[in-house]
């Protein structure tokens, strides 16, 4: 049976560790300059409704470096759900490709695509989750600290797609997560309840003694019309030196990017 990757909950802790092991191996091989082509003869479609820098580049380069083929299909080419129905896209692309990475506005579009495709569908960001981002963040954190279990992470800002995936990822890997967000912008209740995140309106409280401070834009793709209202609501949720000084001395700051410098994070 095919396996989709739509949310981090689709993976167990052991599967995540297996992916990390493979990633470490591939990273080592590529640092040594050797070629490794386990994806020879495989093809991947990148079906994107929203802009992308990192996700697109790493998927394209990653496929090519591992010997596979990749085709990028942006919003102009496909018109997902407008020029063609989501289900027709899922069925047709399944005839040509071994997998589909998709970036959608609505998580529901992603689910419809996954249900109609007969090949694995990978979530390259939806309004609800960003699992690939957080999987690589967890890999980075493990490289830096040598472990994940028991680490404390504070997410400051919007309880958005990245925040949801961080809550799920932290819960699977035994990390403590605290989210500081203004009322009205908290992560979804069912995710908080099921995964056990600590929510507070106070960024100062959230960062006390943490190992990692994480933030993301206050205005995600698709929310541009609410920019003014959001800037006002999140004004006191900026990651800056003052906030950093409340975390552990050796704490690291992470941001999934793109950053709006001077808003959710300062240059220093
Ligand atoms: N929350 C951001 C993440 C960008 C990688 C967005 O959805 O636009």
Q: What topology emerges from the helices and strands here?
A:
Blueprint: H1 13-32, E1 43-48, H2 54-65, E2 69-73, H3 75-78, H4 86-96, E3 99-103, H5 107-116, E4 121-123, H6 131-145, E5 152-156, H7 161-173, E6 176-180, H8 189-195, E7 198-200, H9 203-207, E8 212-215, H10 227-233, H11 241-244, E9 252-255
Parallel strand pairs: 1-2, 1-3, 3-4, 5-6, 5-8, 6-7, 8-9
Helix pairs in contact: 4-5, 6-7
The structure holds norvaline.
Norvaline (NVA) binds next to helix 7.
Quick check: average pLDDT?
Answer: 96
End-to-end separation: 49 Å
Number of beta strands: 9
Class computed from helices, strands and strand pairing: alpha/beta
Query: Radius of gyration, Cα only, in angstroms?
Result: 19 Å
Shape: globular
Q: Helicity range of the residues?
A: 40-55%
Q: How are the strands of the largest sheet arranged? A: 7-6-5-8-9
The largest β sheet comes out as: 5 strands, parallel
Order of helical and strand elements: HEHEHHEHEHEHEHEHEHHE
> Which band does the percent of strand residues land in?
5-15%
Number of helices: 11
Oligomer: single chain
What would you note in describing this structure?
This protein has 268 residues and is an alpha/beta fold. It contains eleven helices and nine strands. It has helices spanning 13-32, 54-65, 75-78, 86-96, 107-116, 131-145, 161-173, 189-195, 203-207, 227-233, 241-244, and strands at 43-48, 69-73, 99-103, 121-123, 152-156, 176-180, 198-200, 212-215, 252-255. Strands 7-6-5-8-9 form a five-stranded parallel beta sheet. The chain has a four-stranded parallel beta sheet with strand order 2-1-3-4, sandwiched between helices. Strand 1 (43-48), helix 2 (54-65) and strand 2 (69-73) form a beta-alpha-beta unit. Helix 4 packs across helix 5 (107-116) and helix 6 (131-145) packs across helix 7. The longest helix has 20 residues, at 13-32. Bound molecules: norvaline. Norvaline (NVA) is lined by residues 125, 130, 160-162, 216-217, 220-221, 256. Norvaline is lined by residues 125, 130, 160-162, 216-217, 220-221, 256.
């Amino acid at each position: 049976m095919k396996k989709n990757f739509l949310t981090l909950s689709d993976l167990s802790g052991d599967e995540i560790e297996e992916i990390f092991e493979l990633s470490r191996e591939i990273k080592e091989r590529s640092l040594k300059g050797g070629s490794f082509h386990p994806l020879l003869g495989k093809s991947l479609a990148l079906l994107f409704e929203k802009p992308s820098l990192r996700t697109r580049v790493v998927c394209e380069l990653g496929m090519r470096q591992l010997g596979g083929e990749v085709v990028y299909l942006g919003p102009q080419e496909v018109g997902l759900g407008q020029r063609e129905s989501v289900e027709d896209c899922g069925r047709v692309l399944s005839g040509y490709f071994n997998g589909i990475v998709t970036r959608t506005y609505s998580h529901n579009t992603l689910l419809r695509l996954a249900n109609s495709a007969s090949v694995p569908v990978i979530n390259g960001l939806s309004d609800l989750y960003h699992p690939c981002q957080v999987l690589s963040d967890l890999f980075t954190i493990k490289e830096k600290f040598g472990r994940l279990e028991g680490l404390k992470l504070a997410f400051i800002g919007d309880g958005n797609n990245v925040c949801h995936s961080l809550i799920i990822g932290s819960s699977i890997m035994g990390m403590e997560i605290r989210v500081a967000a203004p009322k009205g912008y908290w992560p979804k209740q069912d995710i908080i309840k099921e995964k056990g995140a600590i929510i507070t309106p106070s960024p100062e409280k959230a960062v006390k003694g943490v190992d990692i401070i994480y933030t993301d834009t206050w205005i995600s793709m698709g929310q541009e019309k609410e920019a003014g209202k959001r800037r006002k609501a999140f004004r006191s949720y900026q990651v800056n030196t003052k906030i950093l000084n409340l975390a552990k001395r050796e704490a690291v700051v992470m941001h999934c990017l793109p950053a709006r410098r001077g808003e959710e994070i300062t240059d220093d």
